[in-house]
Amino acid sequence: ILHTVFFSVDAYRSLELLSVLWAYYCLLGFFLHAEWDPAKPLAVCMVVLCAIVSGYGLYQYFWGFEQLYNYVTHAGSDQVVKVPILERIATRRVFSTLALPGTLWGFLTIALPFHAALWRSNLMVRILLSASVLMLLVTGLLTRSFGFLVGLFVLIAAWLFLHHRRLVWRLAPIAILLVLVGGAFYSLRQGGIEAANPLVLRAKNWITAWTIFAAHPMGIGLSNYGVVYSQYMLPEANETQYTHNTPLQLLSELGYPVVMAGAALLLLALREARRGSYKRFSQYVGLALIVWAFHNLIDINVYFPSLGIIGA
């Protein structure tokens, strides 16, 4: 709040995001101090939510886009408003209930470990879980986001590291080759509405975030990246409200205070790890958090409550 008062370019945007951060704080406190193990209820909740989101994503692909197209076409808005919306609909990239395809694939990959957490159940439950996973994978592919495949790769790599470390080292050359091939494919891809390479656009967003931090070492205020972005926007970059990299966006918005806070949190986390405080947490929660952290590095996450809070 003090940072918002003294440094925020737009205090209202910062105060709005503080409510999201408060929700993070409350959820973290609940899971840290619950006197009972919340792992199974959390897994059930995530699986049910995933089934709803995936089901709606499939509905959107087969029927929803036509309804959206007709609705926008016959709306009374000006053509200048309709065109970008119609272009997004024309891509037929499923986003279900989560605003953007990149947000959706993040949620789906985070939900996948919770299916595994419930696998040791009776036959009927396994059948339902299998159906949910199938819907999840199909919906994830319909996002047409390369990030979904990368997210699955990170999830599998993390699981192998936890359970089969020797196998990880044997598979490392193949993994490196897949990363290089995937990176080459992604770098050659022409993407979406901007008709530009998504990797290049992200790199430009990241450079802009670092430039804003260099110009404003004490930050510009939470959720204000989009406000000052146009002043530091690189040539042929895309219009955006977000950096597609949570640490860099927080760095540009909070400056050196977030660096000091991050260092303090890291030391606290290391101390708790030495005490063995994290051993009581489910490995499936750990896998979900690994994917969540990775998603924060390449897409919009914390700033979207629909993914950020559930992801937490």
Structure in words:
The two termini are 22 Å apart. This protein is 74% helix and 0% strand. It has helices at 2-7, 11-33, 39-73, 79-90, 101-117, 123-142, 146-163, 165-188, 198-215, 225-232, 246-254, 256-274, 283-298, 305-311. It has 312 residues and is mainly alpha-helical. The longest helix is centred in the N-terminal third of the chain and has 35 residues, at 39-73. It is built from 14 helices and no strands.
What share of residues are in beta strands? under 5%
- Averaging pLDDT over every residue, what do you get? 88
> Which regions have little confidence, pLDDT < 50, spanning 5+ residues?
none
Secondary-structure element pattern, one letter each: HHHHHHHHHHHHHH
What Rg do the Cα atoms give? 21 Å
**Strand count, sense and closure of the main sheet?**
none
Short description:
The protein is mainly α and 312 residues long. It has helices at residues 2-7, 11-33, 39-73, 79-90, 101-117, 123-142, 146-163, 165-188, 198-215, 225-232, 246-254, 256-274, 283-298, 305-311.
Keywords:
14 helices, 312 residues, mainly alpha, globular
